[in-house]
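can u do me a favor
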């Protein structure tokens, strides 16, 4: 059979039959079935009816675009602008109006977007969904150039608590941001992504490590987790030593800098700084016998981020969606959750609360009442959305037997008596009541007493100024692997739950008085 490219198969599936020899009809039918199945698997879209819309295809596109926290934020920015949200600058004064939709970014890795109800009264609360844009990965060191045994290699740092053995023998590349010198002497902030396989971290052959299957794979993260870039030796640079010592090329291989400059359509000499992640090039896709899974990197936590973003956009799309809203709907996407959130762009910074104070102040106008911002916080509610540990069929004993979240069963509400999660009995009830009204399933999770418990940005934000918080997430497997898996149906359930939260929480909250 003549060679058929993947692009031909995806965009011109009928082309496969034009080159087939005459064959029995049964063979043609089976081939057509295989072809259609393959198309669904590879293509970053999924079918949905008008009566049962799905965002699965859109989230696959988002995942494939968002190789880094910078790209995830830039894509969110693009979608918000397309939806009619107005871009704000933290350095400027804000002129906000009820019914308006706004957002701003910080460091191009953190984003806060909000929509103000048309019936908003000063002192009313914020309804927030918060997630994070970062995922465990490898990052280039400030001086990444390394050479061993005639190989050009890149020195990397480990970021977060990744399953680092999964990064071996993968088709890797680089993506991130660079600072480029413009012709007028100014500097430009640009994002870059090299889509082709560029790097690889090879494992050691079993013949040279014949006890690896009995003793375990235990790589030294400093010496063994170093990606190969090329075999061609570097040629002596023609630039002067004085210039070279001051440029980024002194720290990074000229070959890498040339590849980046080709992507950016600029001169390599004009790249003055880089901040790059190592990324897996395999696209996010549907998988499983019934295409019921999503196979992807960075599900933790881009899946939550996209569901929250999309829910906000769709909950205030038509003109009348904010007409009866008394509160302010908000999404906050933070960076650096995987390393503790203590950064300028992380949840440990007062970004969200400063924005809330500015929003209240801008809308107050001549309001002379007492403590409008403090009262707004007391009436606010935060959903901390981060992926959850689904029960692993091969390691079921790692879960407490009565709290084993499954895929396709809805959002997982996380509990921890030691406040590793911020959920309380009240916040869990209110969030489940949203689901109950809209016939959406929920699950609950608590860690075993003999195991440690992770945490989220929930407790950080809840304790920041005292905002009611529930921790929840989509059940997944292979968390922090280079390649993770979650249930396709759970994406749509999470989206519907978050959208319902924005649209109905105000009416639910006023029915329960605690203090």
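np, heres the sequence
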């Amino acid at each position: 059979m003549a060679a058929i490219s993947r692009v031909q198969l995806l965009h011109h599936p009928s082309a496969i039959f034009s080159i087939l020899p005459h064959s029995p009809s049964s063979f043609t039918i089976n081939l057509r079935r295989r072809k259609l199945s393959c198309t669904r698997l590879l293509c970053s879209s999924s079918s949905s009816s008008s009566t049962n819309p799905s965002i699965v295809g859109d989230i696959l596109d988002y995942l494939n675009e968002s190789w880094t926290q910078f790209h995830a934020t830039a894509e969110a920015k693009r979608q918000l602008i397309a939806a009619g949200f107005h871009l704000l600058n933290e350095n400027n004064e804000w002129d906000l109006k009820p019914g308006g939709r706004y957002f701003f970014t910080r460091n191009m890795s953190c984003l806060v977007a909000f929509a103000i109800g048309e019936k908003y009264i000063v002192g009313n609360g914020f309804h927030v969904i918060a997630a994070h844009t970062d995922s465990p990965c490898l990052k280039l060191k400030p001086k990444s150039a390394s050479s061993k045994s005639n190989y050009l290699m890149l020195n990397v740092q480990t970021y977060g608590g990744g399953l680092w053995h999964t990064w071996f023998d993968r088709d890797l590349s680089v993506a991130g941001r660079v600072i480029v010198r413009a012709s007028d002497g100014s500097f430009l902030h640009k994002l870059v992504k090299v889509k082709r396989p560029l790097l690889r971290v090879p494992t050691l052959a079993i013949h040279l490590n014949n006890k690896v299957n009995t003793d375990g794979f235990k790589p030294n993260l400093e010496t063994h987790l170093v990606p190969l870039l090329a075999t061609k030796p570097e040629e002596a640079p023609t630039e002067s030593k004085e210039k070279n010592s001051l440029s980024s090329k002194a720290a990074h291989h000229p070959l890498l800098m040339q590849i980046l400059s080709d992507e950016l359509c600029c001169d390599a000499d004009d790249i003055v700084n880089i901040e790059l992640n190592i990324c897996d090039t395999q696209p996010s896709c549907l998988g499983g016998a019934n295409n019921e899974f999503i196979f992807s990197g960075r599900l933790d936590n881009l899946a939550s981020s996209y569901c929250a973003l999309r829910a906000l956009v769709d909950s205030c799309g038509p003109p009348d969606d904010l007409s009866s809203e008394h509160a302010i709907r908000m999404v906050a996407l933070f960076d650096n959750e995987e390393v503790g959130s203590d950064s300028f762009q992380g949840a440990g910074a007062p970004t969200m609360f400063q924005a809330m104070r500015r929003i209240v102040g801008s809308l107050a106008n001549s309001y002379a009442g007492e403590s409008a911002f403090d009262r707004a916080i007391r009436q606010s509610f935060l959903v901390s959305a981060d992926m959850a540990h689904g029960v692993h069929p091969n390691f079921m004993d790692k879960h407490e037997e009565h709290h084993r979240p499954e895929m396709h069963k809805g959002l997982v509400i996380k509990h921890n008596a030691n406040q590793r999660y911020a959920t309380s009995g009240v916040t869990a009830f209110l969030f489940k009541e949203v689901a109950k009204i809209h016939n959406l399933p929920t699950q609950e999770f608590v860690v075993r007493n003999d195991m440690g418990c992770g945490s989220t940005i929930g407790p950080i934000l809840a304790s920041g100024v005292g905002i009611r918080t529930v921790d929840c997430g989509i059940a997944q497997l292979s968390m922090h692997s280079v390649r993770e898996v979650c249930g396709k149906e759970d994406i749509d359930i999470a989206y519907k739950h978050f959208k319902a939260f924005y649209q109905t929480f105000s009416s639910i909250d006023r029915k329960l008085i605690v203090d």
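Residues 1-49, 240-249 have pLDDT under 50 and may be disordered. hope that helps!!
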